[in-house]
Amino acid sequence: MSGDLPLNINIKEPRWDQGTFMGRAQHFFMVTDPRNVLLSSEVLEDARVTVENYRLGIVKPGLTEDELWRAKYIYDSAFHPDTGEKMLLVGRMSAQVPMNMTITGCMLTFYRTTPAVVFWQWVNQSFNAIVNYTNRSGDAAITMNQLGAAYVSATTGAVVTALGLKSLAKHLPPIMGRFVPFAAVAAANCINIPFMRQRELKCGIPVTDAEGKRLGESSKAAQQAIVQVVVSRIGMAVPAMAIPPVIMNALEKKAFMKVRNHKQNNFNLVFATPLCCALFPQKSSMKVSSLEPELQENIRQSNPNITTVYFNKGL
User: Rounded to two decimals, what is the model's pTM?
Assistant: First the structure.
């Protein structure tokens, strides 16, 4: 061992208490920090080496605890927690705010014509498909054919849903038309996320004990994880897509106020992303009794004292 930093700092877990909403919010404010998108490959690699070496008991000379935690959050923002692979740039949670600010603004602005709805829903769902794949739970491999089929199913289903809602909105008051993007996004998340993560539903995701020891794979844990992610994603869209339509409808002809409202949308997105991620901890849990009977039996035979298992739900 070199350096003065002790080796008992648990960087496998977040820095803040994940049993509280505020602790989860602080954690996700760090993970979704848009500034992480601008970090160079050299900075990311340095963070990876720092974190992985610390886990092996190797401490860089002069490394402080704050620097270690900073490296841990840079690492978490760019590398998949299960596979350790560097994630696609636009699929990282730190890219959510700038990407969603652009796409949401266009969806709220260009919603009147069918071609515009189709195009921006396709852009949005293509982006969501990348995010859902990048932030999937587990380390099971997926073939290009499976990925392609999931992408086509997810984006087609989402676009068809958006068109159906737009057609329905024609028979409703004009203000309802402004809610089409939000309704379409909410419905599409219910389609896109399960499709892009369907392999998890078929093969299961890793479940562990409190110390991180792998106990097996569970499809029921995958179901719970995907439901939690769907709820979080819909929650992210509420501040920017469900509230502003009411304001925009009333102030449509006032250009100054309209500009201010778009700025407010951006402000909402900055805070909505980490706060909605914080609805559920990334490391979720469930009772052993809720798992598949065969997995329950295996756990009880090898670890009879374990009553709760843990898993990465994805983001």
Answer: 0.60
